[in-house]
């Protein structure tokens, strides 16, 4: 498919462009200013924030659709993306919200009828480098990053999608290169620990965490420090890229799930 169309074109011509009754939604995680954040967007005519998502073109696989949407939204060609669940409760579609959007965008009722149907959504999560993302914001929408514990009012079941994604990551935490995908090439151990604490929703012992991270053999200490204040110069570390890429390729468990 081509790049994202305007919301009017998408909703007005959707029945001809997209597979009926199937959508994709993604929780996009990034790390910035000491916090794990998720990217959300909303129509200016709506009060509800949504996960980045959309519909699957008739010439696309679901993964291809999600990658297209993420590239359009973040400017990133290659992202860490995993499909983790599908969501299909009969009450998940907010028909009142859909009617308002169609009305505000002046989509003809007969052309927007498909948008009022029930949709099953494939849920994805993506880990991206916050500093590399070039988030696109169009005149008809608002887009912002939110901390996971400070989310705004969300559309339909998008809070459930976020919660399920976080629970999935917790269960599979030993297989997922979380820090490798979220942090810059050089990072501090407190930054890495902060990410795991945000996902696990609890504090981790500083010494035990550092010992565990260094013991797995995927992180190497650098002979460098970062100037963080008058009396603070935390040591810097880097990830061993080849090892992470090999682990991802063969589905190798990087470390135990126990913290």
Question: What labels would you give this structure?
Answer:
six-stranded mixed β-sheet; NUDIX_hydrolase-like_dom_sf; WHD_NrtR; three-stranded antiparallel β-sheet; elongated; ADP-ribose pyrophosphatase YjhB (NUDIX family); alpha+beta; 259 residues; Arc Repressor Mutant, subunit A; NUDIX_hydrolase_dom; Nucleoside Triphosphate Pyrophosphohydrolase; single chain
Provide a descriptive summary of the structure in words:
This is ADP-ribose pyrophosphatase YjhB (NUDIX family). With 259 residues, the chain is an alpha+beta fold. The protein folds into two domains: 7-173, Nucleoside Triphosphate Pyrophosphohydrolase (Alpha-Beta Complex); 186-250, Orthogonal Bundle (Arc Repressor Mutant, subunit A), CATH 1.10.10.10. The chain is 34% helix and 26% strand. It has nine helices and nine strands. The strands form two sheets. Strands 1, 2, 3, 4, 5 and 6 form a six-stranded mixed β-sheet that branches. A three-stranded antiparallel β-sheet has the order 7-9-8. The longest helix is centred in the middle third of the chain and has 14 residues, at 158-171.
Task: Please sum up the structure shown.
With 259 residues, this protein is an alpha+beta fold.
Number of helices: 9
CATH class descriptor name of the largest domain: Alpha Beta
How many runs of DSSP E, i.e. beta strands? 9
Low-confidence stretches: none
What's the pLDDT, averaged over the residues? 90
Helix/strand structural class: alpha+beta
What is the CA-atom radius of gyration, in angstroms? 20 Å
